[in-house]
Amino acid sequence: MDYRKTNAPTTTVNRDMMELCGDTGNVYETVAIIGKRSNQISVEIKSDLSKKLAEFASYNDNLEEVFENREQIEISRYYEKLPKPTLIATQEYEEGKIYYRNPAKEKEKLQ
Asked: Is 6 inside a domain boundary?
């Protein structure tokens, strides 16, 4: 999923946990699913930001040449304004865009 085009809120939203865990029937399992997806999104955002900021890296060891780069600042501000990975993951979960499975439950069904 493209995290830049998400319709997730940028601020905290109160949610009904019983409605949120309707698919799994377990609040803790739902939180674990959202948490794992949140970590995946966070890693993706961080690597994307690192790639973009690497373009501006200077490899000089001269302390006198420290300067501000407007483009670098704008990129950083853009990423700061994005919704938090947890909010994006929760939105994806509510929309049914996250595929998850529980191997323990599948094993119980087979026996």
From this structure: no
Q: Please indicate, yes or no, if residue 8 is contained in any of the structural domains.
A: no
Domain that holds residue 35: 13-110
The predicted pLDDT at position 33 comes to 94
Q: What is the pTM of this model?
A: 0.80
Rounded CA gap, 24 and 27, in Å?
8
Total of domains in the chain: 1
Q: Is 103 exposed, middle or buried (0-12, 13-18, 19+ CB in 10 A)?
A: exposed
User: How far, in Å, CA of 92 to CA of 34, rounded?
Assistant: 9
Task: Please check whether residue 53 is in contact with residue 71, taking contact to mean a CB–CB distance below 8 angstroms.
Answer: no
**3 domain-assigned:** no
Please name the amino acid found at residue 14: N
Report CA-CA distances (Å) from 94 to 18, 80, 90. 12, 24, 6
